[in-house]
Each structure stands twice: as C-alpha cells, then as structure tokens.
C-alpha cells in the first residue's frame, strides 16, 4: 500500500524552516502520542541541529499512558525536553514555560545582565499535518488565531502569534517527507489521518486498521462492537461489525464504505479507548 504525499507547499515550508530557524530560540515539535515514531519527520531533527527543542506528545488522551511514559524516557536528551499534552483541553501545557526556562537559562542570564526586564522567547512550531499545531497555538494564545481543521493541510503559510507567557510562536504548515520508507509508518500515518483520506483506498485502510486492532486490542473490538468472538480473518470481523451496526445494502450486501468510515472515525475519536500503535 504505497503512500507518498509531498505537495508543493511542503517543499516550500521545508526551505522556510531552514531560513527562519535563526529567528527563534527554541523549536516546539508536535507529534501524535499514538504514533510517536511515525509522526516524527526525520527532516526536522536534521534541520534543527543543536537548536533547543521541546517535543510535545499531543493527543495523549488517546494513547496508553504507560506507553507514553516509556516514550518520554526514551526521547529525553540534554537539549530536548518531552511532554505529554492534550492541545484541545490544554492539559500539560503549563509545563512548557518551566521547560523553556531550563533550556534557555543561559540566554535568560545573559539578558538579565544586560538589564532586560521583560524577556520574550521565540519558538517555531513544527510537525507533520493534522498533529495539532493550530490547536496548540490557539490554546497558548487563548484565541482562534490559527486555523484548525480535522484534515491535513489547513495551515498554508507562516504566521507569528503572541502569548501571555512571554513566548512568541511561529506557526508553520505541516510537512511530511518525500518518501515514506516503512509500510508500518505509511499505515500509521493514514490510520490517524495525517494523510488525506481522499488519496486513500478507504476500505482497504479500514480493513488494515481492524487487523491491527484485533491483534493488539482484541477485547476493545469485541466490547465496542458487541461481537461474540473474533475471527482470524479480518474481513469476516468487518462483516460482523457491519451487521451489528446496520451497514447493510439492499440484497443483504455489506456496505463496506459506510463501515470503513465508521471504523476509522471511531478509532480517531478515541471511541475504542486509549490506543498506542507504536512502542519505543
């Protein structure tokens, strides 16, 4: 299931990130807590180099807390801090200011020695599409400055946003990378909506997701869809779910499009409970 999606504005954004890096003190990289490896753009790490970085694991309410904690320990470095957050509710975001103070202590001391009373830190917000960058910015700014959408590619240009925490945020459009090498990465990005559904075979995608869920979270699938048991055949499980949900066409045929959209929507909305698709 080969997926490559690198629109022109993404190539342009990559160039802009390189050019604007010198304007900021720190990079705030946002990832999806359910797919922390897949939602990492390898280009971002190479572009940022030694620039201090905070990695926000957004949508942590949709991931398993114990696994997210393992990831936090795994990702911590001298110049990197990691925080599990929910950008919709604001949970965890209060810890960003102390983390910035720790990462930028040298700069703050230097500014204080110069007699600067009010220190403003500048942060660039980066991440793949649909990971929650605009939600984060709006929560920090306490307004709806940045456009929000439940589909990738909503933010199309750079913009500066002021907050009341002494932080100015530079928003950038979400960027994927030109070639997605791993099939697992491709699927996990597609499962969570980082790649537009319009370019996907939605029925095949939902079947692949159901296969993963039945393997890793069988009890969740059984309980959610009131199944007696799971079959070893993913298609049979999808058929049984369709029957339970009434996704049936005339002639008693399965409405695969309807049940596929329902499965993806319920997974993405957390209806099956917190799920982590990757382990460190």
From TrEMBL:
Its main location: cytoplasm. One of its GO terms (molecular function) is GTPase activity. GTP binds at residues 58-61, 130-135, 174. Residues 11-178 form the CP-type G domain. One of its GO terms (cellular component) is cytoplasm. SUPFAM superfamilies: P-loop containing nucleoside triphosphate hydrolases (SSF52540). One of its GO terms (biological process) is translation. Pfam families: MMR_HSR1 (PF01926). Keywords: Cytoplasm, GTP-binding, Hydrolase, Nucleotide-binding, RNA-binding. Transmembrane segments: none annotated. It is found in: Cytoplasm. It comes from the Bacteria. Required for a late step of 50S ribosomal subunit assembly. Has GTPase activity. Belongs to the TRAFAC class YlqF/YawG GTPase family. MTG1 subfamily. This is Ribosome biogenesis GTPase A. The lineage of its organism: Bacteria, Bacillati, Bacillota, Clostridia, Eubacteriales.
